[in-house]
Known about the structure:
Layout: H1 4-8, H2 12-41, H3 49-72, H4 89-118, H5 133-159, E1 167-168, E2 171-172, H6 173-185, H7 196-220, H8 223-247
Antiparallel strand pairs: 1-2
Helix pairs in contact: 2-3, 2-5, 3-5, 4-7, 4-8, 5-6, 5-8, 6-7, 7-8
Amino acid sequence: MKTLLQKIQKNYLVTILTVIGLGILIFFLSKIISGSIIELLKKEIAFSFYTKNVIFKFFMIVFSIIAMVLLKKGDWKFFGFNKPGEMKYWKFFLKIIGIFIASLIIFSILFVGVLNHIFPKGEVTGFPEPDSYLEFILTVWIWSSLAEEIFCRGLLQSLLSNLKHIKFLRLSIPVIISGLFFGAMHLTLLNGNMGFWFVMFIVFNASVIGFVVAYYREKTGSLLIAFLIHFTANVVGYLPVFIKLLIA
């Protein structure tokens, strides 16, 4: 008897639409539930932008794991919960750091530098400063990287794995969809009192990160590598803010 996942994967278009729909459902369900909890507790607890994000990402992990159990009966290896093969890590991470730095420079010049001056849309407001560098490390570098990888590369990309033989510009369909979905997730920052062009910079830069992470998730079959790359990208991207906190 065919499982629900096998039935979905019989048709390529159905697979893509179902996975995107599932991703949107989990994302906004997590937003709604975490927002409701924060609203109930805000009189007793002072939530920052970063602590709110921790609660949101917690539910993202919970719903992702529930979906994994329901769709594949907890086949954790299928979803990337295994060790990668041997790699030349120093060479590998120097390469991806170079990619991320180039992406940061190109998109910051394009959106914050050029387009913001040609089509100004108010101040280029960025992320709020955290209370401490420890909060920053735990919530942004570690927790966000872990939660988003379990969701995007663990759940969504794995459910698209039957399409990885279909490629465009050397990237498979699962890699492309996973990368674009990851970038699009950051459009919700527009509701967070941040500048329009800053958000566009984040969205496009996040898409590049998403493509790179998804590519190596597919290549190694491991979420561990995906998490390490994502963690590295967050360190590279937020290093100026982190240095500012240290010297403040």
